[in-house]
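U., I forgot to send this yesterday:
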Amino acid sequence: MESHAAAPVRLGDRVRVFYNYRLGPGGKIVQSSAKLGPIDFEAGGPEVFKKIAYSVVGARVGDVVKVELSANEAYGKVDPALIQTIPVKMLAADAKEGERVTISLEGKPVDCTVRSRSKAEAVIDSNHPLAGMDLVFEYKLKAILARGMPRA
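Result:
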């Protein structure tokens, strides 16, 4: 593979980064390449949040970049319409409060968090678990995997 270490990332290049995702500045790490491995994405492409995809443009291998994302730039605000009360029988018998589960609503699988449950009802939340939260994505550019042309 040709080395691109000295040249900065251009729009459309495929890159590899090692990263940490935090809940706000100085917050708890919620996702990390230490556990999941590095991620590859196109500079300016659709695979990651837009602000992250464009932040890598101009970076060089070895650079460390911190991107602060508002809730709107990340997983969006909490949508109250996605918080529903359902019959508890729709949940597995061992589903606990705070647990992520998949249930069938109108014949479609829905990932949700069990907010509460009683003998008769459960409150579920199908918002993304990080909805409504500001995040910090800090990464180290490990490699420029391929030079590319940006999408039209």
